[in-house]
Amino acid sequence: MLRMKTTDNAVVGMVSAILIVGLIVAVIAVVQITYVPVIMKQREAEHMDKVTEQFGSLTSVIDGQAANGRLGIPIATFLTLGNKELPFLVSSKAFGSLEILDNARMINVTYKVNGTVKTFRIGIITYSSTNAYYLDQSYTYEAGAMIVSQSQGNSMMCRPGFYVDYNSVTNVLNISFDVVNISSFGKKTIAGGFGTYPIHTEFHDVSTNILFTNVSDMTIVTPFSKAWLLFINRSLMAANLNHAGYLLTDTGQALTLDFLSYPHVNIIFKIIDIRAQIGPGWAE
């Protein structure tokens, strides 16, 4: 008579395999839910720091070109628009866009005598991030200033060529404002994605160099009016101006500087044209 022998080895092996697979899935789920967002947020924060450094370098290059005034020397500055996702895990890429905007801002100067308004339009360079985990930021070069903006507000990181000189004896206020105008050259005016792109800039001309006398007010039309307000107010206070003698009005989209008790206000207004294009090579 034959006897049948039973064993549970196969069942134990299958249960062990299921438990191991379940443990692996649980570990991956914990890593995915808990650690991936933290890691990606840190990576995007580091990328924003890198963009700050790169955009600061771009600002320095443009300021140098505006000061030197040398023709025919385009200089490339590289900006990293975003970063890639993590390998083997579910995560999202961070994207960014770099753009040259012609005539995006406006500066108005008004005469005190007859109220005539002189209007000047200027172009800018702007970078905007589209992050998946970290706070979005934008960087803008306008009128010689570098401004960083978030949803909470904006601040000026690099100052423009704005100088104030006040003679308390003669009650004459002299302001020198060197405005950098960015104009696109060719068709390469925008880039998007997560790669690294060069932006070429070149000194072109000093298109405007005017002395305005008997100025009543000056307006800068920009969505970053708060950053300009803080900067101009500090500049006026550093020149020992009486705060009651001028008025700064911020509408959120424009900043107006009214000269209330200063009868003699002169503004030396200069516009320095810088040509720019995005992409490899300088296309004539």
Description:
With 284 residues, this protein is an alpha+beta fold. The chain has one domain. 26% of the residues lie in helices and 45% in strands. The protein is built from two helices and 14 strands; from the N terminus they run αβββββββββββαβββ. The strands form two sheets. Strands 2, 3, 4, 5, 6, 9, 11, 12 and 13 form a nine-stranded antiparallel β-sheet that branches. A five-stranded mixed β-sheet has the order 1-10-14-8-7, sandwiched between helices. Strand 3 (117-130) and strand 4 form a beta hairpin. The protein is elongated and about 100 Å long.
Keywords:
284 residues, alpha+beta, nine-stranded antiparallel sheet, five-stranded mixed sheet, 2 helices, 14 strands
- Proportion in β-strands: over 45%
What is the distance, rounded to the nearest whole angstrom, between the alpha carbons of the first and last residues?
99 Å
Unreliable residue runs: none
The backbone outline, from C-alpha atoms, is elongated
Q: Name the structural class.
A: alpha+beta
Q: Major sheet, described briefly?
A: 9 strands, antiparallel
Overall mean pLDDT: 88
Radius of gyration, whole Å: 28 Å
Q: How many distinct beta strands?
A: 14
The H-and-E topology, N to C, reads as HEEEEEEEEEEEHEEE
Q: How many helix segments?
A: 2
Percent helix? 25-40%
What's the structural blueprint in terms of helices and strands?
Elements: H1 9-68, E1 75-80, E2 95-111, E3 117-130, E4 138-142, E5 145-150, E6 153-158, E7 161-167, E8 172-184, E9 190-193, E10 196-212, E11 215-221, H2 225-238, E12 246-250, E13 254-259, E14 264-278
Parallel strand pairs: 8-14
Antiparallel strand pairs: 1-10, 2-3, 2-9, 2-11, 3-4, 4-5, 5-6, 7-8, 10-14, 11-13, 12-13
